[in-house]
Amino acid sequence: MHQNSMLRQSQQLNPECPICNHKYDIQRIQILDENEQGVLTHFSCKNCFASFLATIVETPFGHMASGLLTDLCADEVLKFAEQDTINNDDVLEIHEMLEKNQFNFNE
């Protein structure tokens, strides 16, 4: 399905900001990624400036959206998406450094 058509139809799922109940402006929605699993979007409310990430997927029963309130702008979402995944060893290493008070924030 065409992106804009999917966005217009999915807007009907929750057409208002969950923070201030102001209607969304579809022109402010940024498509960050699209693949066979769905569309990742970022948008912010022009009334209260709250930002949201949402995934929109097409199912046999219609469109489904899942959203998340965020403090990230669209560029930051893309930047962090390109970063390496944090693994268990990374977490343990940071824990050990904090425990020994050897954390150097300048590195």
Record field, number of beta strands: 4
Distance between the termini: 46 Å
Rg of Cα set: 18 Å
Summing up helix and strand content along with how strands pair, one would put the structural category as: alpha+beta
Q: Give the rounded overall mean pLDDT.
A: 82
Tally of structural domains = 1
Low-pLDDT segments, ≥5 res: none
- How many DSSP H or I helices? 3
Query: How does the major sheet shape up?
Result: 4 strands, antiparallel
Report the sheet-strand fraction.
25-35%
Outline type: elongated
Please render the helix and strand layout as text.
Layout lengths: L2 H9 L18 E6 L2 E7 L6 E9 L2 E9 L3 H8 L6 H12 L8
Antiparallel strand pairs: 1-2, 2-3, 3-4
Characteristics of this structure?
elongated, single chain, 3 helices, about 110 residues, 4-stranded antiparallel sheet, alpha+beta
Summarize this entry quickly.
This protein is of the alpha+beta class and 107 residues long. The chain is built from three helices and four strands; from the N terminus they run H-E-E-E-E-H-H.
Can you tell me about this structure?
- Strands 1-2-3-4 form a four-stranded antiparallel β-sheet, with helices on both faces.
- It has one domain (3-99).
- It is elongated.
- The protein has helices at 3-11, 74-81, 88-99; strands at residues 30-35, 38-44, 51-59, 62-70.
- It contains three helices and four strands, in the order H-E-E-E-E-H-H.
- By secondary structure, the protein is an alpha+beta fold.
- The longest helix has 12 residues, at 88-99.
